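I am writing to request your help with a piece of structural work I have in hand. I set the record out below, with my sincere thanks for your time.
___
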Amino acid sequence: MALGGLRGLSLASLGRAPVPEWEEVARAAWPGRVPAEWASRAGRVQLPVIVASIVIGVLAAWFGAPWLGLLAWVAGASVEWLATRADTAAARLLDLVGLRAPQRALLRSATAMALIFGFGANLAGLGYLTAVLFVQLAWVLQPVLATWLSRSAPPLTYLPGAAPQPEPFAAHARVYARAVGTPGAAVAVEALALIGALAAAGGPLGGVGSAPIGAAVLLALAATAFTGLSALRLSRAQRGWGERLVADVAASRPVFAVYVSLAARQSKYIVNQWLPALDALPEAGVLLVREASQLTPLAATRHPVIYAPSQKDVERLIVPSVRIAFYLAYGERNGQLLRDPRLKHVMLLHGDSDKATSANGMARAFDEIWVAGPAAVERYRTAGVAVPDDRFVFIGRPQVAGLPIGPTGQQPPIVLYAPTFEGYYDQTAHTSLDSMGVELARRLVASGRVRVWFRPHPASGVSRPSMLAAIAEIGAVLREVPGDHLVVADRDLTLPECLAAADVLVSDISSVATDFLATERPIITCDPAGLPAEDFVAAYPTQSASYLLHPGLADLDQVLDAALGADPLRPARQVMRRHVLGDPPGGPQAAFAANVARLAAS
């Protein structure tokens, strides 16, 4: 698998093990001094170096090579420390199977002890073992203190993309970060003890060897005491932070609250797409983020972003001026705010498509459902979801209002391949990426007629490793051949930038395809299930204005000729554009703002 194919993927998409909330807070404002580039380089070699350091350590013990064993230990421990900030997939997977950083350190320590005892230096070995136990004690206590502190932490203001963060957030991140991965202090202290033990193994204990071992024990105790005192000081200081934050929010008189509770890191594509529309509103608002993993992916916004993991924090932050609660997805914790009768609860959703998620029965819990156009209401009716007509409000789609309409005239034309992810259940399993995507990319490149841009869904690979393999293979194809092809993650382009540049979109049943309707340019929709065209359109009505591509790609040349040539489906797309995206007077942003003002005044 080409490593470059993994660029831009989220932690969730790599299927990594979950981490405690306090660790996500630490990573959202990482206080360490290791530069990000160093951490990234160490992360790329982390797994092989971990394995090699243990193997070489064992061999050094067998063959009596103390300084080779020391070198292997230092290399393994140092790379673990450097890679902590990188938060690699390898480390997360090792954590998942029980080999967390302290346990990996114990494996290295075991090889070092075997080396020392191999020389018959029992006292030196016992001294090193004592130091290791104290280092491990200090190490284990760090997450205990972090967990204790996080349970009493107040809500914290976060500035997306900013450095430094406000002091309350930064102070918590500093304490939490000491419990993440492999602390540099643990490496330094144990290295001191190991050097002392190896020196003592070559002569009587009590000379050069005993002092470093004793110093290591004292330093381990000092590190534990320092972290404990830091946590206690922070615990005292945080008592007033929550009250001040609530007072500050009340003083800003927010009219709406955006409730963010999602699967890990989904804010990148769910929340960020709404921020420009929210920022353009004249009213003040506030974003309440329930999970710390959503913080780092957030884009900058003029509205305060508050990390509020506790339900009681959310209740306190819904100050009297708040009249509207916006929801962007059907999160598990939505009910914790939905029960508040003082608010008007509005579901915005994060996209509009023929997927089952666009006609969810849980919509009945909301006071209003703001949708783009009539097609959205028809989906609920077809799905048998009984929602009264007066709960639907048409606002258009503010995210696509600025997209240019009509052909770009660029040559060669750009074909954007933007497959969806595999979904969390069978009803939403529409992706073509791992079944058709690789061959599609090869055929498009080989045709020489187009430039290919590739943008997979950020959550691709959440449950199928074959998705990641396909991403890597397509990335290799596009990077290795001439023709100005592009893996979008390499340039970090936004979805609107990709849609604005594309001449033709190739996608699946996805909101990307419905958003692209705003350009009136050709859409090619993949049907990985291989349904007859009539059945496919009956199941997914908005695709009647798209060219269909079936498994095996036998119809690719014919479909491409139509899309790049006479484009007979353009009139149908123009009709579908109004049906799906709506046509509110004054445009979608004006409709969005007018309805916010309506609810604020009610």
The chain has three domains: 3-152+176-233, 253-397, 414-581. Residues 1-15, 203-208 have pLDDT under 50 and may be disordered. The first strand starts at residue 156 and ends at 158.
